[in-house]
Amino acid sequence: MTIPQNPHSDGVPPITDPRSPAQAETLAATISAEEGTAQQLPKMRPGLVFLLTLGVFGVYLAFVTPIAISLAIRVNFLAPENPEYLGVVLSLGSIAGLITGPFGGMLSDRTRSRFGRRRPWLVGATILGLAGLALMAAIPSIVVLTLGWIIAAAGLNLAANTFLTIQADRLPESQRGKVAAITGFATMVAPVIGAVLGGIVQNQPYVLFLLPGAIALIFVLIFTIAYKDADSRSLTFTEKLTVGSVLSKYVFNPKRYQDYGWNWLGRFLFFFGLTLSTSYTAYFFSSRLDVPVEEIGGVVATVGGVGILATVLGVFAGGFLSDKIKRRKPFVLGAGLLFAAGSIVTLSASDLTLLLVGALLCNISIGVFSAVDQALVLDVLPERETDAARYINIIQLANGIPQAVAPLAAAGLLSIAAAGEDKPYWLLYALAAVFTIASGFVVLRVKAVR
Asked: Which stretches of sequence are listed as region Disordered (predicted)?
């Protein structure tokens, strides 16, 4: 793939428009984007897809294992009387990923290297993540554990987003749903294996943190050796990076890139609804089944197991079918409606059977949405040749912000809605249904994709 030296070197003829320079620039950008979308990239060969999936699995193993179990084990060892520290550590890591992701994406887009724009950042970000994990293992201190997780989360988040950018660079439209399904499956398997691994080596902090990180680095290196990224040493830029220009690149103009903007909003609404409904799952199950919260773990685990199987089903069904029939929007709308249906079943449930049915519907929806919406993002990505990593990291904010804000919103809503012990947890599921339905209808506003 040839990387143009500037945004106007892709064969688009200069445009003159007597109306205004701003309108002419917008029209030129629109034509350029349309031509870029129309270009058919060669299919990624199956062997490279397999190595890509291995790399994604490794990064998510290193990233999710601390979230799933390792950090909890370490916090319990270092501060057994202060379990609330875990929430602080996790939150700071999430914030670090949100802040550093778009900046790392900008630098990736502007990297001049004989190894291309993506490979140096993929390897470097994974090494940074491994360094953070090593720091967490080496020094028995809550402060250092927090610092290590901030470093690890920033690095591994950027590595995960770089894999998605590579898919934007290399996948033709006909493969985007399928590859999203395959890599999505890898991200679902990773926390399960990480939890099992953590349980086995929980008393060996070096192994607990470094083994997942080492696996990630090995798989990333294997992929980068096989992946031929275009030499970017001839790349030139007219704009210099300053504090002001960097900050301005954390946002985008939704009027100029309307399809991308609608997709961003739809994704935000879906994940906001999803996070609302999952923030107080244990408490809701406890209230409906009349089981103490401290004894509800087995039920949550059972529902979670059903959920994983349902999500995998949704991922493969949505990803492969959307590629086959060349439609994205009906699947995204269907996912929003299905999640709403699952939420309604859940909020009306009074026994475990209905809770399982609700979880089944919601998790099939999550799988479909995850695969198809990722393919949709790649379909409408702006400035693909010059700023793909930047826009990939910006779209990830639509996942990250709800995950940071929705639990706080849920807590505030419950506090306002009821001052007594009987909190209206069902209200969170009702609101989740509203948000996810809205997300599906918002995505219908996308025009460039069917």
From this structure: 1-21
CATH number of the CATH domain containing 298: 1.20.1250.20
Tell me what the pLDDT averaged over the chain comes to: 84
Hey, what's the torsion of the CAs at 379, 385, 390, 392, to 10 degrees? 20
- Whether residue 29 is predicted with pLDDT greater than 60 in this model: the reply is no
- Distance between CA atoms of residues 34 and 380, nearest Å: 9
Q: Which domain holds residue 390?
A: 258-443
pLDDT band at 294 (very low <50, low <70, confident <90, very high): low
| The pair of three-digit structure tokens given for residue 263, joined into one six-digit string | 């997709």
- In the block, tokens 């809770």 appear at 355
Answer yes or no: do 215 and 269 share one domain: no
In total, how many domains does the chain have? 2
Judge contact between 319 and 178, C-beta under 8 A.
Answer: yes
Which residues 6+ apart lie within 8 Å of 298 measured at CB? none
Least confident of 43-52, 65-74, 348-357: 65-74
Structure tokens at 320: 């492969």
User: Exposed, middle or buried: residue 234 (CB in 10 Å: 0-12, 13-18, 19+)?
Assistant: exposed
Q: Are residues 275 and 406 in the same domain?
A: yes
pLDDT at 133 over 70: yes
Nearest to 323 by CA among 362, 268, 378, 392: 378
Predicted TM-score (pTM) of the model is 0.77
Say if residues 124 and 204 touch (Cβ distance below 8 Å).
no
Instruction: Establish if 29 belongs to a structural domain.
Output: no
Indicate whether 274 belongs to any domain: yes
Q: Residue 277's pLDDT is what?
A: 86
Q: How many CA atoms lie within 13 A of 221 on its CB side?
A: 7
pLDDT in tens, 387-427: 888 999 899 899 888 887 888 888 788 878 765 557 788 89
Q: What CA–CA distance (Å, rounded) separates 308 from 360?
A: 9
Together in a domain, 132 and 217:
yes
- Contacts of residue 330, defined as CB under 8 A and 6 or more positions apart, other chains included, come to none
Amino acid type, 365: S
